Amino acid sequence: MNAFGRLLDVMDTLREKCPWDKKQTNESLRPNTIEETYELCEALINNDNHEICKELGDVLLHIVFYARIGEEKSQFDVADVCNKLVDKLVFRHPHVYHPSQVGEPNPKPLPYVPAENREKSEFAEAKNVEQVLDNWEQIKQKEKDGNKTVLAGVPTALPSIIKAYRIQDKARHVGFDWAERQDVWAKVHEEIDELKAELEKDNRQRSEEELGDFLFSVINAARLYKLNPDNALEQTNQKFIHRFNYIEQHSIKVGKPLTEMTLEEMDELWNEAKKLEKE
């Protein structure tokens, strides 16, 4: 609490005395917030605890900044932000909090009560992660200012791969999903066949549509097998960067530009890089 209070005090001082901080608005901060979020994601991917701690601080700064701007406009303050979050968490966890605690400013978990002794609830007793998530999606639609439709909670600005995953996952929680996960492969093969057919016709618009359908089906398959497609693709990006950098470093070392190297030479170096990764 002391550390958070210190942060709020520093934010107040900067907002009043720093020329740059004084002129910031929600609109001017937004691009920086996106950048900070991606920097946190990079630290998480690298499992770099020092950087994770640092980048969490940068993201927290933006949260406090937006709250300060809201307070100046007499719209909300950081306490409102915290209380709304707490109220939401309590409301969405009926398997942890008693119904009487919903809306309490400082709720504390009550002792566990077996399902048969609890007040009747429209939500199933949550005994595992999947049941918790299913209930979560249903509860969100019952909140006073919550999502009015199942997919309304998916931000339009999300990167496409993450958005596709979230759309599919939300639909799953209301029962719209494959009965058996292996059934998805027929859809994947169907979509790639349709893509190939449009590519052979040289129809750019239809090919792009079919490419989207194919990628969506692959993401669906990844979700069903509990693989994160965004993390998987980023790992492949990093592998490609590492191996291509190896080729480029070799070209510099021997004084032969990449543009003058044959594909066979580059393939040989690529395979060398792969071997070194396994050693």
Show the helix and strand layout.
Blueprint: H1 2-17, H2 19-23, H3 26-46, H4 49-72, H5 78-91, H6 129-140, H7 160-172, H8 184-200, H9 204-224, H10 229-254, H11 263-278
Explain this structure.
The structure is a single chain. With 279 residues, the protein is mostly helical. It has helices at residues 2-17, 19-23, 26-46, 49-72, 78-91, 129-140, 160-172, 184-200, 204-224, 229-254, 263-278. It is extended, with a radius of gyration of 25 Å. The chain starts with a helix and ends with a helix.
Key phrases:
11 helices
Short structural description:
With 279 residues, the protein is mainly α. It is built from 11 helices and no strands. The chain is extended and about 65 Å long.
